[in-house]
Design goal:
Elements: H1 2-17, H2 21-41, H3 52-75, H4 77-89
């Protein structure tokens, strides 16, 4: 019963994407199983070194994401206010 439902769901998903079920399964296999096998076949320990330049880059990315998010809120502030005002006034 469960297997039949899973097959039906997989078939519907494949139809939405315009591919056959076999092609969809091949795509999923290539994009998830093969990379996982490469990761599992790798060494057990990996020695890594993060120099100060890498730390600086990470900090810049975090600051950039924060500033970008604040800028997006500033641009869409009126839409955000209107959305919440309408959401709570309908009650």
């Amino acid at each position: 019963m469960i297997l039949r439902d899973r097959r039906r769901a997989l078939s519907e998903l494949a139809k939405k994407r315009g591919v056959t079920v076999r092609g969809f399964i091949n795509h999923v296999t290539k994009t998830s199983v093969v990379p996982a096998l490469f990761i599992l076949a790798g060494p057990e320990t990996i020695d890594a070194y993060l120099d100060p330049g890498t730390g600086s880059l990470i900090i810049q990315v975090v600051i950039g994401v924060a500033v970008g998010g604040l800028f997006a809120i500033k641009i869409f502030w009126n839409r955000i206010k209107t959305f919440f005002k309408n959401l709570f006034s309908r009650g």
